[in-house]
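Task 17 of the worksheet. Students: predict the tertiary structure of the chain below and write it out as structure tokens. Keep your answer in the requested format; marks are given for formatting as well as content.
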Amino acid sequence: MSNKPPALLSKPLAPNLPSPTTYITGYDASGKSILESTRPNQWKPFENNETAFSQVYTTSFPPDLNDNKDIKFHDDLMAADTLGLARKGGVVMRMVR
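Model answer:
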């Protein structure tokens, strides 16, 4: 395996396509759908930078959607960097490159 630098992981998956972006939606106080945030993919390299994972989203099951608790759950888990390959009692949405 080659030892490619991590900077290569930020390049688009295909030269003619933009890098993926996650769109987090929610609701305002009146119940209207809103766009909470947009997030560019963050890639975590493995196998000497030959492959990478992007954790798009993860939740408990069933998710608690009140007061954006599901978003906070995901953000806290990503900040702790403790998510393994699977999440017992939850859901993981991941891209692999």
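Marker's comment: Residues 41-97 form one domain. Confidence is low (pLDDT under 50) at residues 1-9.
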